[in-house]
Design brief:
This protein has 248 residues and is α/β, with parallel strands linked by helices. It has two domains: 2-101, 3-Layer(aba) Sandwich (Rossmann fold); 104-231, NAD(P)-binding Rossmann-like Domain (Rossmann fold, 3-Layer(aba) Sandwich). Helix content is 32%, strand content 21%. It has eight helices and twelve strands. The protein has helices at 15-26, 46-52, 78-83, 103-115, 130-141, 165-169, 214-221, 230-245; strands at residues 2-8, 33-39, 56-61, 75-76, 88-91, 97-100, 123-126, 146-150, 158-159, 173-176, 202-205, 225-227. The strands form two sheets. The chain has a six-stranded mixed β-sheet with strand order 2-1-3-5-6-4, with helices on both faces. α4 (103-115) crosses α5 (130-141) and α4 (103-115) crosses α8. The radius of gyration is 19 Å and the shape is elongated. The two termini are 20 Å apart. The structure holds NADP nicotinamide-adenine-dinucleotide phosphate (NAP). NADP nicotinamide-adenine-dinucleotide phosphate (NAP) is lined by residues 63, 103, 106, 127-132, 150-152, 155-156, 177-180, 182, 206-208, 229, 232-233, 236.
Length: 248
């Protein structure tokens, strides 16, 4: 039995466990693969988890350990190193622990789907946490300049109150990398001036639950194109799966 899993602090409603259980069933892998949730009360517990979990091949990492896991790993992919966050760990056959960031694969897939051939001059990223760093990485890769929007001027380039007509008209891609609008608080949306949006705007919400967020519906009311975080979620999971199973 090959063991996979997810580490985090509170894992009550994990998408990944269901995703991989369905995948293993669909692909006839249920006898040989298992994906379990491992709630760790502190990152210090990860060493024992890695040493004592039988047949551990790889695992995902979620809040609040995406950065804290790094000192416990032997090496990082270039992207994980650049971003400074790991959401996927592979244990190689010789026992080395290698950290990857597959969120960026999910972001790449999502932006391809949302934008197609559309050329974006510049973008706004709402929120300045780990997900925001990964989004910034992919935007830089695509040559799209961006500004970070934060509730705290010292963390970002712009405050929400500074998003006026000039800013909205010159940023046709707006990415919600904050948890605002996530279940159960589904009636709220990031505090941007939606009435200034148009059919020239593209909204990407990293939130995947609900699959249509208030951010998306408010944007759509003004003609904006919108995509949820669901594609990102599937793509990052599949990317982790291929990392765990490929020959190094
Ligand atoms: N679809 C996927 O596969 C996927 C993958 C990763 C993450 N996500 C989602 O992306 C979102 C962000 O993830 P994260 O790990 O970066 O989360 P996080 O660190 O908890 O929050 C990101 C940032 O959002 C802003 N923020 C937090 N609470 C806020 C509030 N009440 N009002 C306004 N802004 C707020 C903060 O930035 P400021 O303090 O600068 O305002 C914070 O640094 C989450 O909803 C997560 O579920 C989705």
């Amino acid at each position: 039995m090959r063991q996979y899993g997810l580490i985090g602090l509170k894992l009550g409603h994990s998408f990944s466990a269901n995703y991989f259980a369905d995948k293993f069933l669909r692909e006839g892998l249920s006898e040989e693969c298992s994906y379990r949730l491992f709630e760790l009360p502190a990152i210090e517990c990860v060493e024992e988890f890695m040493q004592t979990t039988p047949n551990l091949v790889g695992f995902n990492v979620t809040i609040p350990y995406k950065q804290q896991i790094i000192p416990y790993l032997d090496s990082l992919s270039r992207e994980a190193e650049d971003i400074g966050a790991v959401n996927c760990v592979k244990i190689t056959p010789d026992g080395r622990k290698v950290g990857y960031n597959t969120d960026i694969d999910g972001i790449r897939v999502s932006l391809d789907k949302l934008l197609g051939d559309k050329v974006i001059d510049s973008a706004l990223i709402l929120g300045t946490g780990g997900a925001s760093l990964a989004v910034g990485y992919v935007l830089s890769e695509r040559g799209i300049p961006y500004s970070l929007v934060s509730r705290d001027k010292s963390k970002g380039d712009l405050l929400y109150s500074e998003l006026d007509e000039t800013v909205i008209n010159s940023n046709h891609l707006i990415i919600n990398a904050s948890p605002v609008g996530m279940y159960p608080k589904v009636d709220v949306a990031p505090d941007i001036p939606y009435h200034l949006l148009s059919a020239d705007h593209y909204l990407f919400d990293l939130v995947y639950n609900p699959t249509t967020t208030r951010f998306m519906t408010l944007g759509a009311e003004y003609g904006a194109h919108a995509l949820s975080g669901l594609d990102m979620l599937y793509a990052q999971a599949e990317s982790a799966w291929s990392i765990w199973n490929r020959e190094e």
